[in-house]
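Reopening: structure tokens for the beta-D-galactopyranose complex, inputs below.
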Amino acid sequence: MGVLYHGADYNPDQWLTRPEILEQDIDFMKKAGVNCVSLGIFAWATLEPSEGNYNLDWMEEIIDKLWAAGVHIDLATPSGARPAWMAEKYPEVRRVNADRIRQLFGERHNHCYTSPVYREKVCAINQMLASRFGRHPAVIMWHISNEYGGECHCELCQKAFRKWLKEKYGTIDAVNKAWNAKFWSHEYRDFDQIESPAPHGEHSVHGLKLDWKRFVSYQTIDFMKWERDCIREIVPEAKVCVNMMYHYDGIDYFEQAKDIDLASWDSYPTWHKPGEPLWETALDTALMHDLYYSVKKQPFWLMESTPSYTNWQRVSKPKRPGVQLLTSLQAIAHGSDSVMYFQWRQSQGASEKFHGAVVSHDCREDNRVFRETCDVGAALKAMAEVAGTGKEKQAAIVMDWSNKWALEDSQGPRNIGMGFWQEMQRHYNGLAQNGVSIDFVHPQEALDGYKLVVCPLVYMMSEEFTLRLREYVKNGGTLVVTYWSGVVNETDLVWLYDSPHNLTDVLGVRRLEVDGMFDGEKRACRAVCAGLPETAQGSVLCEVAALEGATPLMVYDEEFYAGAPAVSVNEFGEGKAYYVATRFEKDFYKALYKTVGEGVLESVYPYETEEGVLATRRGEYVFLQNFNDHPAKAGEWTLEKYQTLVLKQTQDGYEKVF
Ligand code: GAL
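Re-run output (same inputs, fresh job):
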């Protein structure tokens, strides 16, 4: 029987002088069906109050008590925040900003990843924890640091950056060539002349900026590996995870996922936004769940979520009754094997004192948040059999952090924002609304087994990737490529000759011009086929392409490019390739993917479902979730407001699991 984990970030170090509170914690955890906590994420100052003086006894007592109550431990390394003594004695552990100013002590997530002193201190505390608790039966996972991110521009990092460049390019001439550094005479003669981007220094050589982002991601991952390996020196079989973030831009999470056992993420959607239906917020969250399933193509953990409200959003709204259960189970529906919260007990002071938690300041169990947490605990127990099941390969959306970095750094054709995530979301929603199972793939991953591959704003394409896309379509795959794709190579040099690079014959179109659109500016388009909306509006960028064999499905209906394809399809080899020349309004994509998916994609639940009911599948389990605040139908089932139904597919239909 599988296990779905239920729990929270647990920070008992804030309560060590209140034994009655710690006792109540254990009692309440049992009541809420908690079976795992992430322990000691920011506890360094308690674990090592002064240099080399370790104080781990309190943690041992707590781990033993938790374990006696059936609670597993996801044991944290405390590197996300450091004690004041360290910042004071070793300034090099404090980060230097892009303007070259070193930070003062304070806040968190702001250490230098390169500093040998920081690495040494982190290793020492990690090894103390590993020696003491690494083989405790309660410890099933290591929570390495917390939400890695940010960058440091100190001299140590500059040196490490130069070394990284040298290893990547070999010679300074190769660097200059890759970055087109003759531009404005920015050529380098020596690696030592290279500095990270700075507001008062270099910020026009895009290749340099892109490589700096790659280096920061690399160095962060290198630091994570250091933490991991220090633990594994003591406990070779230790399993590790990191918690990733919503839309986080600073780390290539596909790369990071290679070096951990489990991916997890912290999910804080703004539910109940005025004017946005809950199902739409749910799809935004669903995309992230699927992305974090995809980084390892295996079940992930929902590491943090709030049982009620956050305190850092513009306005903090509590989840409406039933929404905690609904949104927690949404994570499970998309491949999570856990529902964890930030945090177990509300802090009494400092910036997170009004952040929601399972146990509120009233210290009572008879309030709504606690009761609803108990409901989640019971539900997870009831559907534990879904744990470990994976998802089916249907559609793949290409996601590449390097591409995003290059796309967003580019000057022109639209400097007021390309709306990368909005573009992703439109394709994602269109597919999800057709009940299609969605993975994200990195361009270096194999595409076999996917019936559809979507390239939204894949501005950067390597030669190798374009060749594989050709093969994929030639062998019967279906491909969708949007505007502003296949424009530059992997060092951000624009591909010469026909574009999208290597794909003009696959798509049957060739890019001619790009019309940047102001916010709110729209370009009328009309359908020239059945199945797509008769009219639609282009925005963001309107790419003008010459038809070279493709069949137009929508055309622009105004401007000097009236009649040019806005959507087209081309047969290539055994497969088909669609080209989408602009960004349409949200509603368009459901129809687009109905057309694209005809005969190609299957719905995970092939029955009529009302708007606002979302269907997903893990293994043989179908999840139907009603995000409407009224009952809604899905096939033969009627779901109550905010209800989740878990069905197991059998030979003759479905059996209700929950
Ligand atoms: C997360 C972080 C937690 C807590 C939470 C509040 O990003 O990992 O420590 O600050 O946000 O929502």
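The pocket of beta-D-galactopyranose is lined by residues 146-147, 266, 268, 304, 310, 342, 352, 355 (CB under 6 Å). The first helix runs from residue 19 to 32. Marking as resolved unless the reporter disagrees.
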